[in-house]
Amino acid sequence: MESVVEPLYRSVRQDIVECELTPGRAFSEAELGRLYNASRTPVREACRRLEHEGLIRIIPFRGYMIAPLSVAEFHDLEEMQLIFEPEAAALAAERANSDELAQMKELATYEYRVGDRSSYREFIQKNYQLHTLIAQSTRNKRLIEVVSNIHIRLMRFFYLGLPFDSYGPALVAEHIRIVDAICERNGQEARCRASEHIRMAMERSASLLMSAIRFGEAVFDANSNSLDGTIPNTRSRARRT
């Protein structure tokens, strides 16, 4: 069963993160099964895992809903970053091995091109990889889970279309400062640089987010009970497994 559930879970999670499946949209196990060519048992297990990660909500006696997005959630996730990621950076300075440090250096230098959607999406992925690699290098499984989940959920806002605008050089410089401190095995400096990076990101996102969606409200209202809708700036349909 795991050999069936795992690829289904990964496909659905990717489509939720990239907003191929519209935030706030309701669906049944049968609908999801038809969309991904899967039977109900693996669909149910995949949905259970996604619900645990905060990407799907269970609607008792009715089915499921893709978790909506709100400014309140975005602020909560940023605050969680500020709590966990500076400490992850400090631990990484103590525990990261040479291969991990080399990967961090490579990931930190990627800069997206303004107006180039493909490079922007590539940056979203590399940003996720960098932050989770720093967490992974701590060897703390619970910390890895928390940081990974924070970034998986944050990525939905950026795939949806919340822009970084022309902040590419600043983001790269901040990433490099964090990684340099980790490579120098300076835990205190790594903690400070990570905290600084997150606070700067919070400042940059504040005005952008408030203009994109209203406080505490879902980005999308689910006006349909099917999964055949699309949203702006995404591919026209979800991938099938």
Describe the 3D structure.
The chain has 241 residues and is mainly alpha-helical. Helices cover 64% and strands 4% of the residues. The chain has 9 helices and 3 strands; from the N terminus they run αβααββαααααα. Strands 1-3-2 form a 3-stranded antiparallel β-sheet. A hairpin with a 3-residue loop joins strand 2 and strand 3.
Short key terms for the protein model shown above:
three-stranded antiparallel sheet; mainly alpha; globular; single chain; disordered C terminus; about 240 residues
Shape: globular
Low-confidence runs of at least 5 consecutive residues: 213-241
Strand order of the largest sheet: 1-3-2
**Major sheet characteristics:** 3 strands, antiparallel
Distance between the termini: 15 Å
- Let me know the number of strands: 3
Q: What order do the SSEs take from the amino end to the carboxyl end, as H and E?
A: HEHHEEHHHHHH
The number of helical runs is 9
Instruction: Supply Rg.
Output: 19 Å
Mean pLDDT across the residues is 85
Relative helix content = 55-70%
Query: Strand fraction band?
Result: under 5%
Q: SS-based structural class?
A: mainly alpha
